Amino acid sequence: MDEKTALFLLREVGCSRSVIEHCKMVASYGIEIADRINSDRGDVKVDSALVLIGALLHDIGRAKTHGIRHAAVGGDIARKYCLDERLIRIIERHIGAGITREEAGRLGLPIRDYIPETLEEKIVAHVDNLVLGNRRISLEERIAILREQGLGEEVIQRIKKLNDEIEGYLRL
Predict the structure, then answer these.
(1) pLDDT of 14 over the 70 cut
(2) What is the model's pLDDT at position 7?
(3) Helix H or strand E segment including 80
């Protein structure tokens, strides 16, 4: 799938202009990080094309809901369109720094592990944390928002750990 097709799909399923603009910003930031990792490190290779399309489609579920379920719903939409399983995992695992199987059960999501595993999944989740609407924010701003929303320290620590992991790839 190419960028044009991904954007068409977002419109086709009913994503709003603001969701699409957010997805484009996440994609731009994700590619920036992927390219930096690929150019600075010989020991790690990021699939930049997968990051681009995964980031563009990460919020496809927002065509149907803006709640926590949007990631699982997005996975269902992606399956309906027979998308690559790697894209489906990016869509399902992008919330925060992922959702554990136990948390999924408490949240009423299909019970499975939504923790990002691949570097591409982690990059999309990370940059989504650092993009609010269509602007970049700091990790501190994201954490303040999460605390205002009443999210637990376990979730915040997971997001910090993901940030540290990605930042570690960006340091030589």
Answers:
(1) yes
(2) 98
(3) helix 70-80
Which DSSP letter does residue 36 get?
Answer: H
- Domain containing 67: what range? 3-170
Token code pair at residue 23: 């997805």
- Which pLDDT score, from 0 to 100, does residue 40 have? 76
CATH number of the domain to which 144 belongs: 1.10.3210.10
Question: Among candidates 35, 15, 17, which has minimal Cα distance to 27?
Answer: 35
Q: What is the mean pLDDT of residues 125-150?
A: 95
Task: Give how many domains the chain has, as a whole number.
Answer: 1
Per the listing, tokens 């086709």 go with: 12
Q: With a cut of 90, say whether residue 87 has pLDDT above it.
A: yes
